[in-house]
Amino acid sequence: MNLSDSLVHQLLDKMPVARFAVTRSDGRAEAMPIVFSRVGNQIFSPIDGKPKKTADLERLRHVGKTPESTLLLDSYQKDWSKLWWLRLDVRAGVCTSSHGDWCEAVDRLREKYPQYRSIPLFKGTPTMIVMNWNRAHSWAFNGIDGIRSWLSDTAEQ
Amino acid sequence: MNLSDSLVHQLLDKMPVARFAVTRSDGRAEAMPIVFSRVGNQIFSPIDGKPKKTADLERLRHVGKTPESTLLLDSYQKDWSKLWWLRLDVRAGVCTSSHGDWCEAVDRLREKYPQYRSIPLFKGTPTMIVMNWNRAHSWAFNGIDGIRSWLSDTAEQ
Hints:
- 2 copies of one chain form a homodimer.
- Chain A is an alpha+beta fold.
- Chain A has one domain: Pnp Oxidase, Chain A, CATH 2.30.110.10.
- Chain A contains 4 helices and 7 strands.
- In chain A, strand 1 and strand 2 form a beta hairpin.
């Protein structure tokens, strides 16, 4: 199923969590939940102040070694007729505040997540994973109407 | 954070959805949402009757070629103090009804998912992905108590 860029953008802007799939140093695929914001066709995910032993996260090394990865958005619901997912093939990298879209990405993170009023947006040197996608693949139990319904239900909350 | 086998089992039994990370034929890591049941230390995920063009899913070829994969369980909530995730390193394979635990896995799927009263549990030749895990890695914002809270909140629903 092909989604328009506009629909992909809306899903990325509304969905609070995605699962980022990377290749580990031992070659195994692994996924992690991430928070993120979107600026144009780029997705930014901060190394934030949620409890962690170190800001030198393995995910930074993984994307440094293997940038080709994927991002999954999906919404699980008991009513399976509402199920859908969107998967983006992305090229990921690590960026710091010298990135041209840094400030906008940060603004959008603070807007999307009120949680950052009490939790630091960064741990250590401000760092984000930045992703550019080149292919979107999607599925929905009820086709594109199911995705549009999710967007309108979410807008009402 | 180390979780006991008993806690891992409880999380697998309560959580309706997981994200399964596999290595694609082009070498890229990708994740997909799956439903599943647990029998002992094995996890079963059916190729079910949700709308799909074919039962010959790419995921079957992916695990056939690269069995080493991971399974992610996590619960996103607006209250980030309740966040947690569990990731299992698994060896995945494809099985049919000749598998010794087939019937128990099927019974548990039907028990866990009332949705299978109206949606076929299988599409085409009954087939499941079976996973055995050899390593569990986990994180929780509030440590193990956050995971225990999630389990008791879920039990009340």
